[in-house]
Design a protein that fits this description.
elongated; 58% helix; mainly alpha
């Protein structure tokens, strides 16, 4: 699929079909890696601590994080 995209050989009729194929190609196997990278970039910024904690919890789902320090 990736080679086809780079070569512009695939033509999708819908975005949904494209996203489905993209998930098949790069989906679940990489979810943990993506989540860990997102955790590393996570900053509180101007959010309240409650908002930050909720975002942290959302990002940790699927990351393999198990209350480790």
């Amino acid at each position: 699929m990736l080679e086809d995209l780079e070569g512009e050989l695939l033509k999708y009729k819908t975005v949904r079909k494209f996203l489905t194929d993209l998930k098949k190609e790069f989906g679940e196997e990489n979810q943990e890696t993506v989540k860990v990278a997102e955790l590393k970039r996570l900053e509180q910024e101007r959010r309240t601590i409650e908002e930050f904690v909720q975002e942290f919890k959302r990002v940790t789902r699927g990351s393999g994080y198990e209350r480790r320090l």
